[in-house]
Amino acid sequence: QGAEDAPSIPTLGPLTDEDVTKLRPCEKKKLEIQGKLYLAPLTTCGNLPFRRICKRFGADVTCGEMAVCTNLLQGQSSEWALLKRHHTEDIFGVQLEGAFPDTMTKCAELLNRTIDVDFVDINVGCPIDLVYKKGGGCALMTRSNKFEQIVRGMNSVLDVPLTVKIRTGVQEKVNVAHKIIPRIREWGASMVTLHGRSREQRYTRSADWEYIAECARVASPMPLFGNGDILSYEDANRAMQMGVSGIMIARQVPVGALIKPWLFTEIKEQRHWDISSSERFDILRDFTNYGLEHWGSDTQGVEKTRKFLLEWLSFLCRYIPVGLLEHLPQRINERPPYYLGRDYLETLMASQNVDDWIKISELLLGPVPPSFTFLPKHKANSYR
Fold first, then answer.
1. Predicted local confidence at residue 381, as pLDDT
2. Which segments constitute the DUS-like FMN-binding domain (predicted)?
3. Which residues are registered as beta bridge partners of 93?
4. Three-class DSSP category at 3
């Protein structure tokens, strides 16, 4: 049989974008977290050792610290470290921050190939000037075209659900979340978390849970988690009655996951826990051990663990023991008063003095290096 008579073999031809779209799964895996307690991604303090502590106390869902997409694309090892997951984190996501559809989509595609997560979150809630002025974080709420392209682009390349965290709006008395949320749902997001304050408010006002409830209604059937001022199990109960799918626990100035990580236990067991100073010190010891395991037990690892322990102590010192409170629970925006603890350790842990935090770190990690100084990253804004 001559070559000219040979049967032709059909070829597929070049792979087109349309073919790739067809090859993607028809339906993403659903994010089944209805009614669960979600530990917010906390910049600086929401590191892996801290998340392990919160998991032990009952956090159901955890998320890595905000990672900047351009830093990830440049291969910065410190940024990639933020995405590391501990095996105890059974429902775990990562949070990305960026201002442009191309870089955010490329980054999502990269993460889809390289890391094991249950969801990817877009940070559209970060209020800080450095992020806002570059068009990221809260600024995306005012850049609807870019926002849409980012959500659609990332959603198209991810095999896992895409979620979005937003605020009520940018300006103090101009709520826009209720207008944006239905569009986020149309663009393909699987869930929205709403912080009940605007960018301008920061922590100067209480979170607006009536507005969160309104937004939960317009979000349906897409789940909406509420965030803001969950300081006790009573607050959590009230929040769940507002029609949200679940609640996110964040830093909550002056109380919250950073001040009392056992808040998750209080919510699940419906009680106030008058935790002793020795029990709290044991938590710090566990954090230290987790830190040395995560960052290393050499000199560099010890000092990195110390740095993050001190950052956490700048929040922990604001905890007022239940047994010393005149009224339960402690309220938002109450500056912690000076008090004398029921023992030396309780008084030491209540100190607002950096030298005392360093003293606590030395009890756990040994003496600080010569000429050691520490300035808390979040202290300047802690009582704004």
1. 38
2. 39-277
3. 63, 119
4. helix
Distances 104 to 157, 268, 323 between C-alpha atoms, Å: 11, 36, 48
Contact 290/89 with Cβ under 8 angstroms? no
Region class of 199: left (phi > 0), else alpha (psi between -120 and 50), else beta: alpha
Is residue 126 flagged as an active site residue?
A: yes
* β-bridge mates for residue 194, sequence order: 166, 226
What value does the mean pLDDT take over residues 89-106? 98
pLDDT level of residue 23 (50, 70, 90 thresholds): very low
CA gap 229, 208 in Å, rounded = 9
Q: Assign 28 a pLDDT band (cuts: 50, 70, 90).
A: confident
Report helix, strand or coil for 225.
strand
Tracing tokens 């037990």 back to the chain, one arrives at: 297
Phi–psi pair at 227, nearest 5 degrees: -140, 135
Q: What is the pLDDT of residues 337-361, one digit of tens each?
A: 677 889 999 999 999 999 999 999 9
pLDDT exceeding 90 applies to what percent of the chain? 74
61, 39 Cβ separation under 8 angstroms: yes
Supply φ then ψ for residue 257, to 5 degrees: -60, -35
Residue whose tokens read 């001559």:
2
Tens-digit pLDDT profile for residues 227-240: 998 989 999 999 99
DSSP conformation class of 340:
-
Mean of the pLDDT values across residues 3-10?
Answer: 52
Alpha carbons 25 and 23: distance in angstroms, whole number: 7
Say how far apart CA 225 and CA 185 lie, in whole Å: 14
Residue 84 burial (CB count, 10 A): 14
The distance of Cα 271 from the centroid of its chain, to the nearest Å, equals 25
Query: What pLDDT, on a 0 to 100 scale, did the predictor assign at position 74?
Result: 98
Could you tell me if 170 and 136 are in contact, meaning their C-beta atoms sit under 8 angstroms apart? no
The active-site residue, picked from 54, 63, 126, 138, is 126
Tokens of 8: 């032709």
Domains parsed from the chain with CATH numbers = 28-269 (3.20.20.70), 277-376 (no CATH)
Q: Is the pTM of this model over 0.70?
A: yes
Cis peptide bond N-terminal to 321, omega within 30: no
pLDDT band at 13 (very low <50, low <70, confident <90, very high): low
